[in-house]
Amino acid sequence: MIIRIFQVVTRPGKEEEFGKFFHETAIPLMKGTRGIVQVIPGAPRLDTPREFSFVMVWESLEALKAFVGDDISSPHIDPMEAELVESRSIKHYDLVEG
User: Domain ABM, which positions (predicted)?
Assistant: First the structure.
């Protein structure tokens, strides 16, 4: 299994608008995506008010590629999200089951 950590920093002043998109669109979309075993959404904290994240566990690299394409380092961006986001980061790891 593959862990994909997707982090977003919103544009200044867009926190509330992105928060609405995050809760109403992004979380349901990711939870309903084929190939995802688990979705753990992360909302901002007081010390990082513009940062949102997703930790996703994908059943396989092939399932992830079916969603994002062959370049897994590129973000899958909803058009509604594009104008609200200043930066994104993506990291991938192999899941270690313990």
Answer: 1-69
pLDDT in tens, 28-84: 999 999 999 999 999 999 999 999 999 999 999 999 999 989 999 987 777 878 899
Q: Which residue, among 76, 85, 68, 69, has the nearest Cα to 21 in the 3D structure?
A: 85
Tell me, yes or no, if the pTM score tops 0.85.
yes
Q: Which residue do the tokens 């992004």 mark?
A: 26
| Of residues 61, 84, 63, the one with CA closest to residue 9 | 84
- Name the CATH architecture for the domain at 2-94: 2-Layer Sandwich (3.30)
Domain boundaries, given as residue ranges, for the chain: 2-94
